[in-house]
Amino acid sequence: MNERILEGTDHLGIKRFFRLDDAAYDDGALSGDTKELLGLVASAVLRCNDCIDYHLQQCVDAGWSDEELLDALNVALVVGGSIVIPHLRHAVETIDLLRSREQAER
Amino acid sequence: MNERILEGTDHLGIKRFFRLDDAAYDDGALSGDTKELLGLVASAVLRCNDCIDYHLQQCVDAGWSDEELLDALNVALVVGGSIVIPHLRHAVETIDLLRSREQAER
Amino acid sequence: MNERILEGTDHLGIKRFFRLDDAAYDDGALSGDTKELLGLVASAVLRCNDCIDYHLQQCVDAGWSDEELLDALNVALVVGGSIVIPHLRHAVETIDLLRSREQAER
Amino acid sequence: MNERILEGTDHLGIKRFFRLDDAAYDDGALSGDTKELLGLVASAVLRCNDCIDYHLQQCVDAGWSDEELLDALNVALVVGGSIVIPHLRHAVETIDLLRSREQAER
Amino acid sequence: MNERILEGTDHLGIKRFFRLDDAAYDDGALSGDTKELLGLVASAVLRCNDCIDYHLQQCVDAGWSDEELLDALNVALVVGGSIVIPHLRHAVETIDLLRSREQAER
Amino acid sequence: MNERILEGTDHLGIKRFFRLDDAAYDDGALSGDTKELLGLVASAVLRCNDCIDYHLQQCVDAGWSDEELLDALNVALVVGGSIVIPHLRHAVETIDLLRSREQAER
Fold first, then answer.
1. What is the pLDDT of residue B57?
2. Is B19 on the interface with D (CB under 8 A)?
3. For residues B72 and B39, is the Cβ–Cβ distance under 8 A?
4. Which of C1, C58, E61, F106 has its CA 20 to 30 A from that of F63?
């Protein structure tokens, strides 16, 4: 996602932010897989579909099941309220899309 | 936290919301411990100190280490930006307080 | 709106949230009609077009006039600021659409 | 509330904003009383205690009962999620305070 | 932007808000050009693409260079966090569009 | 402000974020002074008093006058709405405090 902006700009601060953003999900005290789940919930309560899609892709790659992703999104729903519902619906559609891609690639 | 409001009110919808809120952190597809960490990050990016304190208490009870809590809060910082810093500072103070209580109880 | 997600998921917490969400707009100490207006203003200041559309439909069904809807949206505009303007524009377009449907059905 | 800032500043835009803010709650297509309730819910979902207190005072003056205020705050809770809970607790305390003042004045 | 809504409504409060909104970017203690840059950063951290586009157009008309616009957007990115990235990408695309229009008009 | 947290933690990502945050206000395509004003408005629309206080201190050090600061805050008020008013009041009090300190130091 970040690649595309980088082509159009060479602002040092922006480039460094992107590197910091990537590094935040590397294995550390917590595993990268767990941190992708944190990123998903943060994106959901802040209501950003592009960010939800990005973290869902990472979460699916990390091996989280549909049941686990919904359980995480339920936390986001309760914390963030009904205003999160359109983003929950969007997330469910993205999960379906990612799963059908997985199927096709087998 | 919810107890205190319940005393002052008997609105059925509010009571049900509190029960739903509690249930969201029960063991499910994800463990309750993992979901407390999700609740912490959601509270941090939405910048609510009372909510951060509540989830930090639950996270400490669940056995998450300081390093793991800071790694989760770092995700919140990167997702939510510098506007999260005062809440990160608050969280660090709360962690210190919870740890010194743990010490005192031994 | 909630129906569609329910088909794709059977997470108990999510289902219960949807029921709680529906119940919040039932007649109670305040009439359901008044609470739809509250839902509209909450949706507008939180800047969610899907939520605005949903509550506008309910408000039109409840018999609120265009003048009353605009008066409510004006409160949202003053509380939420110019950042609400794109959503106010969206709301005005939705009201026009709902009214022309009303006309067609007569 | 606005008075105090006005003493310290004579910025024309700010003064005009305050006048616009006051006018938004005057009787219009909707009654001023209904609009105070809208202002309360908007303040609650945007999580501003000072704004909640201001609108609660106006709502109490307008004659809304505790049951009606809680029913409005329940809409805010469902729309805005558990992150609204600390502000709901604050609101309940303010309502108690305003009611005991009412008692004392009789 | 405001023109289109005004056609569909004649709510006095809304009209006055639009006038106040326009006036906020007039030359004052700060130049109008500087205030457009402030409007851009406010729109970016509040994550409103329509508002970003509007202020980018004004900023380009005011003569701000791409480097200056990116430097302002970098402040928004650091303050608002990675959740601002999709809006930064949108802003970069809008800047490209505005610059190619400038080229075409010469 | 960041110093205090750094003492309590040595998380590499957090440290790097603080450095990036500081660097965002260095002279670049825009002057550091202008970027402090951007930081002030971003802090005001995101409604963070600690952040407002920090940037006001930097803005006063940069030589911005009261009239210029209020003109910037007026943009924040119009963009962010009446929900910003308590933070505007806070900002006016901080400006007064900073000016009286300036007086005392002469």
1. 97
2. no
3. no
4. E61
Mean pLDDT within E59-68:
97
Closest CA to E85 of C103, A48, F40: A48
Cβ atoms of residues A2 and B39 within 8 Å: no
Contacts of D72 (CB under 8 A, 6+ apart): C30, C35, C38, D37, D40, D41, D64
Q: Is the pLDDT of residue C82 over 80?
A: yes
Number of other CB atoms surrounding residue A1 within 10 Å: 15
Integer distance in angstroms from the first to the last C-alpha of chain F? 25
E-proximal residues of C, 45-104, CB under 8 Å = 47, 67, 70-71, 73-74, 77-78, 82-83, 85-86, 88-89, 92, 96
Q: Whole-angstrom Cα distance, residue D31 to residue B55? A: 41
Give B13-61 pLDDT, tens digit per residue.
Answer: 999 999 999 999 999 999 999 999 999 999 999 999 999 999 999 999 9
Instruction: Take residue E40 and report the two structure tokens written for it.
Output: 């851009």
pLDDT at B106: 81
Query: Within 10 A of B26 (CB to CB), how many other CB atoms are there?
Result: 11
Q: Of D82, A71, D76, D88, whose CA–CA distance to B54 is shortest?
A: D82
**DSSP code of B84?**
G
Write out chain B residues lying below 8 Å of D70, CB-based.
9, 11, 14
Flag whether the pTM goes above 0.90.
yes
**Residue of chain B nearest E82, judged by CA positions:** B79
Burial F11-41 (b: 16+ CB within 10 A, else e): bebbebbbebbeebbeebbbeeebbbbbbbb
CA dist D4 and B53 (Å) reads 33
Could you give the C-alpha distances from D74 to A44, B9, C72, D81, in angstroms and in order?
22, 11, 19, 10
SS (H, E, C) chain A: CHHHHHHHCCCHHHHHHHHHHHHCCCCCCCCHHHHHHHHHHHHHHCCCHHHHHHHHHHHHHCCCCHHHHHHHHHHHHHHHCHHHHHHHHHHHHHHHHHHHHHHHHC
Mean pLDDT of D54-77: 97
